[in-house]
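Feature request disguised as a bug: please show the residue count (342) next to Fission protein ELM1 in the output. Example input:
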Amino acid sequence: MRILILSDGIPGHVNQARGLADWLRHSGRSVSVHEADCRLRFKWLRRPLAFSCNRLERFPTPARWILRCYRIQLPTQPADLIVSAGGNTSFANSVLARYWQCHNIFIGSLRHLSCKNFSALLTLEAVAGSPPNNLVMDFAPARVGNGRIEPNRWALLLGGDGSGYRYRRQDWTTLLRWARECAEENDIRWIVAGSRRSPGYLRQLCDRHLPESFVAASCWPGDSSPSLADTIPSAERIFCTEDSMTMLSESINLARPLTSLRPQSVSMPDRYRWALEKFEDMGLIERVAIGELNAGYRSGKNSGVQEEIISAAHRRLINQLWELIHPQAVKMVRATPPTPTR
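Example output, currently without the count:
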């Protein structure tokens, strides 16, 4: 099976698509993967693109216009399956599947776009109306490295404002002071990672409170240092701010004791809270407020998380997915193929 991954250039999005391709490969399916850079030219195009995609079965002509809204380099050989995550890729995903008469998968919530544009839609919560091609994941896929666990190495993954979470400078200071006390008391070194939403001053704050003697590796956006996906597998425990569903999902895929950390000010959407509660009920995370941390704290509730739990979730989703995308599965009705642009 030839898989085409459409990348919007955002690591968290493309890593989900890569993770799903890995799940298919590990399930015994023969797959080859090609990635194509797929950049939407202007964000204001999203609403008219959704309107056009939802009507392609009746009005196929706009398909050519939709692809011209992207900067995209396509492979010479058609794909058997298209996979993408991140809303900006969804419109190209839909049109290219029609062009190649192939199955397609989108990972994430749809905004104004119909489920009918995809062979399978993978989400963390059910879409309204429960369409048959909507598969609800226990957690999002992610590609993670195969590095071995290093004793006394923990990971601290830092996000920022978003998803209803608001961090004060004092929240970060409290968290980093705890991290230093933890390193001193438990004789551990940290893998420290920031994200695109981390405040500009956070890296300097980390340098002040966590000197090099307490840091095994650091990963910050724009750095040339090894990626988080390559570095985090060496951690035996992971602490991750709760605002970042991407970093939480990557950590869950590693099947390590995982603690999510939240600031004092939180007003998350209901669907985000439901996802966190599901993770907690499954024993995948332990949720803690930053103000409740102390140097002796270790995530204990989920310390017995076994790889079988993660593997079972993989198998369950892939078996359901294969019913929708195997070569003999009925494809959705296609419009007249457009000519893709480069």
